UniProtKB/TrEMBL annotation:
Residues 643-713 form the Secretion system C-terminal sorting domain. It comes from the Bacteria. It holds the Pfam family Por_Secre_tail. The keyword Electron transport does not apply. It comes from Sinomicrobium pectinilyticum. GO terms for cellular component: periplasmic space. GO terms for molecular function: lyase activity. This is T9SS C-terminal target domain-containing protein. CDD domains: beta-trefoil_Ricin-like (cd00161). Gene3D superfamilies: 2.80.10.50, Chondroitin AC/alginate lyase, Immunoglobulins.
Length: 715
């Protein structure tokens, strides 16, 4: 791919343009915007960013932030050096790549400072930089275009992760344009991971591809990078974890020089950290191969002796073998960012020590002040690099989910306590969080009994010491669940009461209505799809809601044991927003509250009417480990079902591996209210979301292939 210019402005009507359009469609179908990624989730997560944000006035964070603000890319007076329509890197042309790198670095640093300090001036500058480049850049090229894309492209992705997922107000159209820039301009030259070069070229492309894949929600590209990372195939593979780093820790460029040798170690480490943030376990692979490699390099560059195997060399490009380990560039690097602290902390999480890596991290920390255009892993990486330093005062919080409850436990370090408050939110951003318990005394535990099953919550403890200083805990999340089927309360719009089995367990017993109590199983009903209809099974009595064959207006509804009779089948019809009418298949009458507002009053049936007494809201009160829980999204591979794009704007497409006549789709909002029921037919089904407000929705699709549960973001 060298000497090519990669552009998405190929002329319309030409074969390359048509191929490009086909490839774009295939990418969308096979993975783009379909995966469920953790955001932010490249080199720093929200919790890691919050460690710095919550401790920015304390050391060592304060000094690191002061140095970052004083650096060129961190200054509010930074003057953008681009944008350009084309950028090149290589011996034949070096136009614009230095300026592009500086602007990309500044964008990342300004985005980082904007979130940590809360100063919107940094955020606004970051947005202006990325918008300018995404609206201008058409192509990148040159002999070393892979390194241009691989080293500088991830900076845009890292900035984009922070700007897009921390409520900055970055316009959705601008986010899309930035994602398109990375997808259409930066990813193509890295396709195949620099096949002709291997080694540090390939590891750079692998790292960058995974970083961009997270920001753009491209599962297919993420998988490509991960599969290259774990490949055990022999040469010409000299770039995977197993083939770039030998069992003794040496890598394929140890005999060339120490700068290029380090490049592969750092890129493989960066890829591992991204994968870790996305739920993978890269650090223990190959008997801790990454640790062995980084320890090897650090020991040698700190002056120690290491073993050397001449047979380990850069086989793909035919460089080497070298007779001995190279002393070129040996020592503590001063011009590159360090990932040593990241690797040290990764193995601390596993209870393992990294003596040489830790020593190198401390040495590098004394030499690096500002960001570099190379990778932005210097001072901007403070969220991860300083997490190993426990502040003098801290609160460490954990959250454990139960059935309708979340148990919080925490420890305090070095705090003379004044008061404690408990906060909760439905996202990980502490802005806008709600206090659910104030001044709770000096304990270190709290039970949230107001949590709703199927909803993921984030919690914080805000401790105030005797002098008035505020110490925020880390955020801790949990998704309470019953571990069984999904249950609803059916609340009548007219009476305000909910449908209740009333503890009656005999066939033919009437149903009743009762004031809402989410904890009472007699008011919980399981919705069971029956083709175009549903059955409603009471959680307390175990009986099905039944029309009893009664066709007179005002006749009571009953309950009956397991049956396939049409008397126990109901058509759920959306009527007014989140309200439904529920019609019995056999009697033709609608479930009706009858205007009766006393606890225990019968629930009846009535002919077609628009009365509020015939309107019901279905509210999820208890769900299986799935609805609303990011950890329970059913994998596409196991069901053959996918919903894309995600995030979506006006429409989504539901794709089934095999055609279905009556797949059943339930859509809930983030509060658990059932807002739509759809029947999905065929193999591809397009669903209009234009009437839904922005927010997070839970799609539950049941078909012959199984149950598929997925969070969908409507933008």
């Amino acid at each position: 791919m060298k000497n090519q210019i990669f552009s998405y402005l190929t002329a319309k009507g030409t074969m390359p343009y048509r191929k490009m359009r086909i490839m774009a469609v295939l990418l969308m179908i096979t993975g783009l915007a379909r995966a469920q990624f953790t955001h932010p989730g490249i080199l720093s997560t929200m919790d890691e960013l919050n460690v710095v944000r919550n401790n920015q006035a304390a050391e060592p964070w304060k000094s690191a932030l002061d140095a970052l603000k004083a650096s060129e890319p961190g200054s509010l007076s930074y003057a953008m050096q681009g944008p350009y329509s084309a950028v090149y890197r290589g011996s034949n042309n070096n136009e614009g790549w230095v300026q592009h790198g500086r602007d990309a670095t500044a964008c990342y640093v300004q985005a980082l400072l904007g979130y940590i300090t809360g100063d919107s001036a940094y955020t606004d500058k970051a947005i202006s930089i990325i918008n300018a480049w995404s609206g201008t850049l058409n192509s990148i090229g040159g002999n070393d275009v892979e390194l241009l894309a691989g080293i500088q492209g991830p900076l845009w992705a890292q900035a984009g992760e922070i700007l897009a997922h921390t409520n900055t107000g970055w316009a959705s159209s601008d986010i899309t344009r930035a994602k398109n820039m990375l997808t259409n301009i930066f990813l193509p030259p890295m396709e195949g991971f620099a096949a002709a070069d291997g080694a540090n070229f390939s590891t750079t492309c692998m790292y960058a591809t995974m970083a961009i894949a997270v920001f753009t929600d491209n599962q297919s590209k993420f998988d490509d990078a991960w599969n290259a990372f774990v490949s055990t195939a022999g040469c010409p593979n000299d770039f995977s974890l197993y083939k770039n780093i030998a069992e003794n820790g040496q890598n394929v460029e140890s005999g060339r020089d120490q700068v290029h040798s380090w490049s592969s170690y750092e890129m493989l480490s960066g890829l591992a950290e991204i994968a870790y943030h996305q739920g993978y376990a890269p650090y223990t692979l190959g008997s801790n191969r990454l640790k062995t490699g980084v320890e090897y390099w650090c020991k040698y560059n700190l002056g120690g002796s290491v073993p050397y195997d001449e047979s380990v060399y850069r086989c793909r490009a035919g460089w080497g073998p070298w007779p001995e380990i190279s002393g070129t560039n040996r020592g503590v690097p001063t011009g590159q960012g360090s990932v040593c602290n990241m690797v040290r902390r990764a193995y601390e999480r596993l209870g393992q020590s990294t003596p040489y890596t830790s020593q190198m991290a401390d040495a590098m920390g004394n030499t690096i002040v500002g960001a570099t255009p190379r990778n932005g892993w210097g001072a901007p990486f403070i969220a991860d690099a300083l997490l190993s330093n426990t502040p003098a005062t801290s609160v460490s919080l954990t959250a454990t989910a139960g059935d309708g409850t979340v148990s919080l436990n925490w420890t305090r370090n070095g705090i003379t306590l004044g008061r404690q408050d408990v906060f909760r939110d439905t996202d990980s951003d502490m802005n806008g969080r709600t206090m659910i318990a104030g001044d709770i005394g000096g304990g270190t535990s709290y039970m949230d009994n107001t949590a709703q099953n199927g909803v993921t919550y984030w919690y914080w403890i805000k401790a105030t010491d005797a002098s008035g200083t505020i110490i925020n805990s880390n955020s801790a999340s949990a998704a309470p669940s019953s571990g069984g089927p999904a249950y609803y309360q059916l609340q009548n719009r007219g009476t305000g009461l909910v449908l209740d089995g009333y503890g009656r367990t005999a066939n033919g017993d009437d149903c009743a209505q009762y004031a809402s109590s989410t904890n009472h199983v007699n008011s919980h009903w399981e919705m069971i799809p029956m083709g175009s209809y549903h059955q409603f099974r009471n959680r307390g009595t175990g009986l099905l809601l039944d029309g009893m064959g009664r066709t007179t207006n005002g006749s009571a509804c009953g309950q009956w044991a397991n049956t396939t009779s049409t008397n126990a089948q109901w058509r759920v019809e959306q009527f007014d927003g989140a309200y439904y009418r529920i019609r019995n298949v056999s009697t033709g009458l609608y479930l009706d509250g009858m205007g009766q507002t006393s606890n225990g009053a019968d629930c009846g049936q009535w002919a077609s009417t628009s009365s509020a007494n015939a309107q019901w809201e279905l509210v999820l009160v208890s769900s299986s480990a799935g609805i609303g829980s990011s950890s329970a999204d059913t994998a596409v591979e196991t069901t053959g079902i996918s919903i894309y794009p995600n995030p979506a704007t006006d429409k989504v497409t539901i794709s089934l591996a095999t055609p279905s006549k009556n797949a059943n789709l339930l859509i809930h909002n983030s509060l658990g209210r059932l807002i739509r029921i759809e029947k999905v037919g065929g193999q591809e089904h397009e669903l209009d979301l234009s009437t839904l407000p922005r927010g997070v929705y839970i799609f539950t699709l049941t078909s012959g292939a199984g149950k598929f549960i997925r969070k969908i973001v409507k933008e």
